[in-house]
Design brief:
17% strand; single chain
Length: 115
């Protein structure tokens, strides 16, 4: 089953990122980053193979609903294509992160596991 591994980059600099998150960043070669505008984003961007960010989507979309819908659709497409992708978000994926609940909802409908 295709999967999306969601990790949080913590509240600030890279010293606050957990060992588990660091290991997943290294392990999964297809990486997406909600935004590069976070102090710990460099951990994902500088990993071999880098990462795709959604900063252009934020700049182009008229609403946050459009942004989060695009993010969910792109991650689901990538998971089906690659088998497994990483999605890194600022802070915690479960606290004030609107893209993750939408992703989980759409993943259930499309046969993708969100971890």
């Amino acid at each position: 089953m295709p999967s999306i591994v969601v990790v949080g980059l913590g509240p600030g600099d890279s010293s606050l990122v957990t060992a588990g998150t660091s290991a997943e960043i290294k392990r999964i070669p297809v990486r997406y980053l909600r935004t590069a505008r976070h102090p710990s984003a460099s951990l994902v961007l500088d990993a071999p193979g880098g990462a795709t960010t959604f900063d252009d989507t934020y700049d182009a979309a008229a609403t946050f609903d459009e942004v989060y819908g695009h993010i969910a659709d792109e991650l689901l497409r990538a998971a089906h294509e690659s088998g497994e992708v990483l999605y890194a978000v600022p802070g915690s994926p479960l606290v004030l992160e609107r893209s993750v609940p939408l992703l989980r909802e759409r993943a259930t409908e499309s046969g993708v596991e969100v971890l």
